């Protein structure tokens, strides 16, 4: 099954969306302006519950992948539900701690942790490092040694599995930059006695993102399980297995379907049967993507020679996924008014052809000022936004049963340019 592309033709007309989590979206947009990200607290809680129920009876910690959506209010929701965090930078470490996620539930992934970041993580007392290279393992040994501390570590193994997802979000092939081969990981364990400041006693795997098919998960976990059994037989401790994230969600109504937590956890239970250590899970997208929408107004309608363009007040700087991954997002009106159908290329105002949300998309005919809802944008939306074209970062609101809270105010021009200055104080390094 291939990921839907923004160029696929119309097949199914998704329903308009006047409300989200009990909040009237027209009223919300009138109040807070557009472009505006809106997140449903109840939709996120529902996903958390579904996952926690599926994990019942297992010693499992869910470490939310902060990069999917790092807004403080979202992290606080995760903290309240008892989740941990999967971080990839010192910035995410601070966000997670500030939101009340205990350090003991934080794991640190990523191929380029700096010594300062390793030091900050040791200082905070995080649960473990997911180590991606021998060079990094030595850096952690060095930094922990300098602090007189012991770091806990898991080796991120690259199981050489094709996740059947978009190439830019596939991470588990031998050719990808992530993790080490099982052969190399075997050597790390064989020589773990030489590590004086690192306790290497965990395995980690993460094969990619937006995975809708359970087969790659199953294949990767079976490879990890075989390795875990081999390590135990060789007398090595395996205290934790981190199965990563990557669960896919529905971006296109009538076309795809989010992975069901029970099915996914069923694969974990089956592949890792008999494992009596701690399981760690790192879902990001699956918890928040469908719990977010991007509200945007139609600025104008441009009738081109060959195509009609709908120009929105949101752009690729607000939501990069269509331009970066060719990703499909359903785009529907907030109004339930019935109008004739029309077909548009839906674009933003940024000066790039890549600033396109959809091509040849059929929806109810639009007029300038109409409010549109770009769905499935709770993950890798605001967290990937930039100020390209000097467009300030969009506002974000959390919705909860008919109420809303502004959780990021719209960036002001002053905030956007803060830190820049004229070249006046010339120095030599
Ligand atoms: C990005 C990432 C995740 C989360 O991926 P999703 O597809 O959003 O679930 C989990 N673990 C690691 C190591 C990651 O890099």
UniProtKB/TrEMBL annotation:
MF term (GO), any: diaminopimelate decarboxylase activity
Chain's role: Specifically catalyzes the decarboxylation of meso-diaminopimelate (meso-DAP) to L-lysine.
Residues holding substrate: 285, 321, 325, 352, 380
Record HAMAP family: LysA (MF_02120)
Subunit structure and binding partners: Homodimer.
Ligand binding (pyridoxal 5'-phosphate): 246, 282-285, 380
Pfam families: Orn_Arg_deC_N
Family membership: Belongs to the Orn/Lys/Arg decarboxylase class-II family. LysA subfamily.
Ranges for domain Orn/DAP/Arg decarboxylase 2 N-terminal: 43-289
Pathway: Amino-acid biosynthesis; L-lysine biosynthesis via DAP pathway; L-lysine from DL-2,6-diaminopimelate: step 1/1
Coiled-coil stretches: none
Gene transcribed to yield this protein: lysA
Alphabetical list of InterPro entries matching this protein: Ala_racemase/Decarboxylase_C (IPR009006), DAP_deCOOHase_LysA (IPR002986), De-COase2_N (IPR022644), De-COase2_pyr-phos_BS (IPR022653), Orn/DAP/Arg_de-COase (IPR000183), PLP-binding_barrel (IPR029066)
EC number: 4.1.1.20
Keywords: Amino-acid biosynthesis, Decarboxylase, Lyase, Lysine biosynthesis, Pyridoxal phosphate
Protein name: Diaminopimelate decarboxylase
Required co-factors: pyridoxal 5'-phosphate
Catalytic reactions on record: meso-2,6-diaminopimelate + H(+) = L-lysine + CO2
Modified residues (N6-(pyridoxal phosphate)lysine): 67
Keyword Lyase included in the entry's annotation: yes
